[in-house]
Specification:
The chain is built from five helices and five strands, in the order βααβαβαββα. The protein is an alpha/beta fold. The strands form two sheets. Strands 2-1-3 form a three-stranded parallel sheet. The chain has a two-stranded antiparallel sheet with strand order 4-5.
């Protein structure tokens, strides 16, 4: 497994221990690209190197790459609900191009939803500086993997019926987001602090607790 994540996973002191030793590719998000104008050029260069490394991995094949097209923008809504934030169409399109580029191994695209928000929620508002207050909760988490997504607009069901002038890049991003949102709806109940036992969705499994882990 190779993870693609923002640079804060290696600069934030609370996140860094969980990133060490991982197969990790870092990118700088658009929202933080201009935080320090003097570093913009270096950030853009690192992003380019990351894309090149992803291209090498996809060409070789046999690797699973995890990426969050919404970045760290997920926030709890005013009514208390949580919904995955909209995906960046440019990020989705970049992955589609890398995975379908001539010379790349056969690439499969799957929507993966993660119900982990309340374990360590992000700040209520977007922060530019490192070191904001973070709260950790004892709660459940869930993962839900959806059916493979056809990213070829000439054969995919999501592209049928679209207007001739439709932006296929945006349409694909919206389709991928909707597939992830549906998977998330099946597991969101497990990620509630103090919520108690949660019935498993149909076809789901609960990991076996290793005997070495104490029950509190």
């Amino acid at each position: 497994m190779t993870y693609v994540a923002g640079d804060r996973v290696v600069t934030d002191l609370l996140c860094k221990p969980f990133s060490m030793g991982k197969n990790l590719l870092c990118v700088h998000s658009k929202k933080h690209m201009n935080d320090d104008p003097s570093l913009k050029s270096a950030k853009m260069k690192q992003n380019l190197n990351t894309v090149k490394e992803m291209q090498k991995l996809l060409k070789a094949g046999g690797v699973c790459i995890w990426i969050a097209p919404a970045g760290g923008r997920d926030r709890r809504q005013p009514d208390g609900t949580i919904t995955p934030d909209k995906f960046d169409p440019a990020a989705i399109e970049m992955l589609r191009k890398l995975g379908t580029k001539k010379g790349a191994a056969k690439t499969h695209f799957y929507p993966l939803a993660m119900a982990t928000y309340d374990i360590m929620p992000p700040p209520a508002a977007k922060e530019k500086s490192i070191g904001e207050e973070r709260v950790v909760n004892f709660t459940g988490c869930g993962l839900s993997l959806g059916p493979e997504i056809d990213v070829d607009a000439s054969t995919a069901a999501w592209a049928r019926g679209l207007p001739e002038d439709a932006d296929l890049t945006v349409a694909l991003a919206e389709h991928v987001w909707e597939e992830v949102r549906k998977e998330y709806a099946d597991i969101e109940a497990c990620n509630v602090p103090g919520g108690g036992p949660v019935p498993l969705p149909e076809g789901a499994v609960r990991p076996t607790r290793p005997p070495s882990v104490p029950v509190f």
